[in-house]
User: Fold this.
Amino acid sequence: MATITSNGSGDWHADEATVWVGGSKPGVGDDVVITSSHDIAIDAATTCASLTTTTYSGTLTQSAGQAFTVNGDIAWSGGTFTGGNSAIQCDTFTLTGGAWTSTSDTLLVQLQYTASTIFLFSGGTFTHASGTVEFSGDHFNLDKTINISSALSLYDMRFSGGWIHSGGLGHYVLVTTALLTVTNDLSIERTYSSWMGIMGGSIDVEGNYSVAASGPDQECTTEVHFTGNATQTYSSLAGFGPVMVCPSGSTSVVQPKAGDEDKTHSATGLLIKSGFAGTFVAPGPAPNGIFSLTGLIGATPGYVQFEFSGGTFTHSDGTLAFNTVHYYYTGYGWTVSAALNLYNLAIGGYQYHSGGNEVTLTTSATLTVTNDLTIERASGTAMRVGGGAINLEGNYVSLDGLDKWSTTEVHFTGNTTQTYNCPSACGPYLVCPSGSTSVVQPAAGTEAATHNASGLKIEAGFAGTFVAPSGTFALTGISQQYPGVTWFEFAAGAFTHSSGTLSWDIIGYYYAGNEWAISAALSLHNLAIKGGASHGGYAGTALTTSATFTVENDLTIERTSSVMRVNGGTIVVNGDVTAAASALTNCTTAITLNGSGDQTITQADVAGLLPGGAWINNNTGGVVLQATDVTLAGALSTVSG
Assistant:
């Protein structure tokens, strides 16, 4: 292996005696240095170990049909390179000065087994009117950096490669302190067995974008900006892919590639920015037409996974799926600041470790799901959805879903029969809003099951019907709830509860409170009040009853942790009242016994207290039986009747 320096002008091979110092052309293992003003033509297929220019002012030309392979570095700092129509390959490429016109075939930058900056453009000019610049390599837990510090335009750009063994992780790291534009197409394909990701920077794409089914299988933070101001297609079929961005000022119509409309497409995130004046077309139809946002495992709180702030979002069929996967208390942001209609919305994901997987929805404009909303925790623990509201015109399903409290509100606005199926331990607030005429009922086959939600609000002006299950409807509350936040509201419409139990599960830290507001006559079959503070202090429930609130069958009260209070209002009970093993402390809620047959008051043990407000016996056809000694929590009022 030797360093061979240019000595004059001519053809690389045919004129070797003139062109090269020593009179012999470089061999496969030789480092080539071109200097002075020599004009040299690569007149045959050529291979060398490296190519460097120093104080060069001449021209190196790749003749037509001649491949040029550099088994090391190309370091171009001066002079002119004129590419031909055949492939060029190197391990790394650096352009700091001079002019490089690339081949109309492929410039392949392929470094194996080593961490390095594989492509650096910081000066000079890079002309790429046609052809492809491709980055590839086998990664052994190593990052390959592409550093763009001067504005660069490429025709086609392609990422390939991957990790050749299981268990490793290799990333391309894109650093763009200047604009990187792909004037035609950007493609990504993992050509080895596993483990490929693309991190950092952004790429403006004016043509089409594709991620093969064997594309990245790791998260990608690189942003792909659609700036073509024309119809641009995407085909993102791998499990992961870069963040897709419709930026301000663009008028592009961004739509699935023809033939891929009914396939599943994936991206780390989707950002449709304020000032975008084009259209984003989501895939469809269902069930296979899915756009899946995979998110970042290591996202920090405030990371925006989805944004819709301008332009048009077309989603006449298919599903937009949010899949949140991350560690501890990291969170995702979903921001909707312009009116948005989705067909199906699916929220999934999980937490790798204990903590809280917080998904924060911000809706300063109306977010409507015209068909179905589904929430399902894929595996792991600790998933919640907080903030914002979703107008739902179809059905709601929360399967093995949220296991942490959720403050997002689901509004039933379909003005038709809408079903819910929410057996998971926690779930968003369910809201029957003003103006809706929906009949909201359990899904067929789930009528006798247990359903859960963080809260239930049936608002003033609701003109439909809420049908409770014949099993249990459990309101799990918000463990960090503050006083004054309404947890259960019944203000209008019809509430059908001919059998089963409505369960209020009070869960709070310290002095957290949950408000129950009943301003229209309400009848429940069974009512169970349970819960308590998970730490010191108490979990208090403030009941406001400006209309008659009746429990047609039995009332059960049980404190399941620390201290629990039930204050305010009156509960009319037509059946039995039971204090389970651990109940209340210092409570003021009044109980009216209004049955037409025998009613029994039972205290399970000495710790099981009952509310200490007024107890009124209005029983008209039976006997009120005190089955055990009963201790009232709070000051005992007169028992009359």
Observations:
- The longest helix spans residues 16-19.
- Residues 634-641 have pLDDT under 50 and may be disordered.
